[in-house]
Write a structure and sequence with these properties.
mainly beta; Lipocalin; 2 helices; globular
């Protein structure tokens, strides 16, 4: 019993000496496009055709890092899982796509309007776009019916090879 009391006391002292979280933490407010992507937080369902016919897919969005990043997990908890991280870079939304092609292309903001955001390949990301197969463009369309359409463009030998449109609907809670 005495050993338990000493352990609890040591734990309490350890917790008491931890630094306090910042008291002036302000919510992160990013670019208009980044804030629009944050509205996707939650689970979405859709279908995607990568050449073998339509397959069901799940996409999960989470706002992380104090609101300064959005994590997108496609095909979560499967061998095909991919992660895309959205964040603002110099005041413009950008993304890094951790792909099942075993590379990490960076796409930078190209343009937007009230209903869509378009990204293009950032040549400075370390991928040789003329030699390495990679995802090289993305448009996210926010549809009037509440669905979202992503259109990813796959590049090979420096040229767009194919696009992969994905229509997503928010999962029912």
């Amino acid at each position: 019993m005495k050993a338990i009391a000493i352990t609890l006391l040591a734990f309490a002292i350890g917790v008491a000496t931890l630094p306090a979280p910042p008291q002036d933490h302000k919510p992160y407010k990013g670019s208009k496009e980044f804030e629009k992507i944050k509205t996707l937080a939650g689970t979405w369902n859709g279908k995607m055709d990568m050449g073998q016919g339509p397959m069901d897919m799940v996409v999960i969005y989470r706002v992380v890092a104090g609101g300064s990043a959005v994590e997108e997990r496609t095909f979560p908890d499967t061998p095909m899982e991919m992660v895309t991280m959205y964040h603002d870079k110099k005041g413009k939304v950008s993304l890094t796509h951790y792909c099942m092609l075993h590379n990490q292309p960076v796409l930078k903001f190209k343009e937007s309007d009230d209903d869509s955001i378009t990204f293009e390949f950032d040549e400075g990301c370390g991928i040789d776009s003329k030699k390495e197969s990679h995802m090289g463009a993305l448009t996210i369309q926010f549809n009037e019916d509440g669905t979202v359409t992503q259109e990813w463009s796959h590049f090979e030998n420096g040229k767009a090879k194919e696009t992969h449109p994905i229509k997503l609907a928010r999962a029912k809670s």
